[in-house]
Design brief:
With 328 residues, the chain is of the alpha/beta class. It has two domains: 200 residues, Spore Coat Polysaccharide Biosynthesis Protein SpsA, Chain A, CATH 3.90.550.10; 111 residues, no CATH class. Strand 1, helix 1 and strand 2 form a beta-alpha-beta unit. The mean pLDDT is 94. 46% of the residues lie in helices and 17% in strands. The chain is globular. The N and C termini lie far apart (45 Å). Strands 1, 2, 3, 4, 5, 6, 7, 8 and 9 form a nine-stranded mixed β-sheet that branches.
Length: 328
């Protein structure tokens, strides 16, 4: 049976790395476990993440503080197994998480297989909103997909080697970027909904919106460097990708309010943005209830503005050929 190396990148993750590693240790202790090594890549932490990781049985390697993609590259290149299981440092794997992914690799055409989330913060309303949206998207994903996130994914080491691993220029979105190159190389991507890791979603709205700004920033590079991929994928739809530019349009059209003839024009993109929240809100109404559905609609509209501003900055940096500085 093919062995597995677990690679976990992390930076200042002292609050979550212990339960993350304990869950992997529990999987390693299973009688039929195929996991042969557990690597924690310390991506420039200033807290005691590395010490906690070492105390919980991980081999700690320095990541150099260059971002999660670079840290994952350090990990898989140091690994000795053909299958590399990437798990994020703020995720706690279920005991059967890996078991649900490995059968896909009996097909030589499969380059990677990934799974879904459980909610690690059920006591937080924001975390519940974030999770219920993700869960709805995951429920709609087929087995054969065109995008896999790296919070819970197994890649063949041979595929990573052939593709050069993650593009280290990307501080966000490197999972999508690698997915696109994996597909372009002729490999299949598989999604296993019953492979779960509990994720500690964001509890603070301000921190969540800052993360969405950074997400928009790196999406600009992703879509400009991989043309034809901006129309949606197995996880997101065209309506999702339209929301940030529509939000931007509503902002730049605000000066038109000063003129009687054009004062109504800013209402058009705003109304469109509001309308685009309806499909997902409706999908959440049954499983999550009206409170989550209504709160999601408001959060999603606000999120579109932050993503839109990040998208605009990223596009400008790309067009002008400026340095891809980490956005604040």
């Amino acid at each position: 049976m093919t062995s597995v190396s677990v690679v976990i990148p992390g930076c200042n993750c002292a609050d979550t790395i212990a339960p993350c590693l304990r869950a992997i240790a529990s999987i390693i202790e299973q009688a039929n476990s195929t996991v042969r090594e557990l690597l924690f890549i310390d991506d420039g932490s200033t807290d005691n993440s590395a010490a906690i990781a070492a105390a919980n049985g991980a081999t700690v390697l320095p990541g150099g503080g260059k971002g999660a993609g670079a840290a994952r590259n350090v990990g898989w290149r140091a690994a000795t197994s053909e299958l590399i299981w990437f798990v994020d440092s703020d995720c706690v794997a279920a005991e059967t998480a890996l078991d649900s992914l490995l059968p896909h690799f009996s097909d030589d055409a499969v380059g990677a297989a990934g799974g879904a989330y459980d909610n690690g913060c059920p006591d937080s309303i924001l975390a519940c909103i974030i999770h219920e949206e993700i869960a709805a998207r995951h429920r709609a994903m087929p087995v054969n997909v065109d995008f896999l996130a790296t919070f819970n994914v197994v890649y063949r080491r041979s595929v990573l080697h052939a593709l050069g691993g993650f593009d280290e220029r990307y501080l966000r979105g490197q999972d999508a970027e690698l997915s696109f190159r994996t597909l372009d190389a002729g490999h299949q991507l598989r999604f296993a909904h019953n492979s779960r890791v509990a994720h500690f979603h964001e509890r603070k709205l301000s921190a969540y919106l800052r993360a969405q700004y950074r997400q928009g920033y790196w999406r600009a590079f992703l879509h400009m460097e991989h043309p034809g991929r901006a129309g949606g994928d197995s996880y997101s739809r065209l309506s999702d990708h339209l929301q940030p530019p529509i939000a931007l349009l509503s902002l730049v059209s605000l000066p038109l309010l000063a003129f009687p003839i054009t004062g109504w024009l800013p209402l058009a993109p705003l109304a469109s943005l509001v309308a685009l929240q309806a499909p997902m809100s409706w999908r959440l109404l049954g499983p999550a209830g009206p409170r989550i559905a209504v709160c999601f609609a408001a959060m999603s509209a606000l999120r579109a503005y932050w993503r839109g501003i990040g998208l605009a900055r990223g596009a400008l940096v790309k067009i002008l050929g400026l340095s891809r500085a980490k956005p604040t």
